Amino acid sequence: QQQVKQSPQSLIVQKGGISIINCAYENTAFDYFPWYQQFPGKGPALLIAIRPDVSEKKEGRFTISFNKSAKQFSLHIMDSQPGDSATYFCAASSSGTYKYIFGTGTRLKVLA
Amino acid sequence: DGGITQSPKYLFRKEGQNVTLSCEQNLNHDAMYWYRQDPGQGLRLIYYSQIVNDFQKGDIAEGYSVSREKKESFPLTVTSAQKNPTAFYLCASSTTADTEAFFGQGTRLTVV
Predict the structure, then answer these.
(1) Rg (CA), chain A
(2) Mean pLDDT over residues B97-103, rounded?
(3) Closest Cα partner for B76 from B54, B12, B68, A42?
(4) What whole-number distance in Å separates Cα of residue B66 and Cα of residue B56?
(5) What stretches in chain A show pLDDT beneath 70?
(6) Which of A29, B17, B23, B30 is most buried, by the most CB atoms less than 10 A from its CB?
């Protein structure tokens, strides 16, 4: 119940295309859902996050879609660029706890 | 500048030796975390600390030890009991787990 399942494991997209990464969870107590971006040899950095009171959040080319009933959330990268090539992790956590549950990551490659 | 600093960036250890990885933050965060990342893998929680002088085991604590004597510092010791210590180690901090986690740049440990 503590797992967050992420797919796909890897993704190749043409420049200008849309990249979509999906995550699913079981624990209904989760109420914070961040996405992290990690470049090789670096630490992850927060990209965008959502709470379950909204179904979508957009920041620039990055959008989180959240489906509370299906217990799924996804990251959409519009107009994907070669500079977006990185590993993306979804995560989930609960208020009042001190544990983030991370997905296994998606390695994105955007072809020029 | 506020942030989280890990040192060293690269570390080599002989089999049978203990080694300590440093993590310092000046973000005034209560919670600190240690994660292990293996090639192509997600982030696995080793230990976390909610407050000074308190810490909890994560999912893969065997062969590791930590201390939290100061709010700013959360060093990780990789002991000789850790069977396969070669990995990328990431330290993070946050206010709570339903807010952004800030990661350091990581320490790559290699056993030679």
Answers:
(1) 13
(2) 87
(3) B68
(4) 9
(5) 1
(6) B23
